[in-house]
């Protein structure tokens, strides 16, 4: 995935940030950091790179508070779509590598792991 994203001019944290923003536009730096499992300081670096590349837009100031809502630019949506095509193709290859008779059990195991992490 890292190699495929590098070919799209993105890092894994940048891709994760774009994915989250596509689903939930307007998130703040702190919200994005939590959603992508990085520190706020690391997310600042990620967002600066995305903003410099013209992939996200954040207002310079806000009327209330300090959180600046972030949205994808048209170029950000285009770049995300190209990256998704690559990432989803990798995901499909991974799934095809699991014998069909074992796939349901593997997915159930992943669900149990995720539930264990939530609790």
TrEMBL record:
Looking up PANTHER family in the UniProt record yields: HTH-TYPE TRANSCRIPTIONAL REPRESSOR YETL, TRANSCRIPTIONAL REGULATOR, MARR FAMILY
Q: Which residues form a coiled coil?
A: none
Instruction: Please state every residue range assigned to the domain named HTH marR-type.
Output: 1-115
Question: Pfam families attached here?
Answer: MarR_2
Record-level Gene Ontology MF annotations: DNA-binding transcription factor activity
The species this protein was found in: Streptomyces corynorhini
Q: Which domain of life is it from?
A: Bacteria
Q: Which GO terms describe its biological process?
A: response to stress
SMART domains in alphabetical order? HTH_MARR
The protein's name: MarR family transcriptional regulator
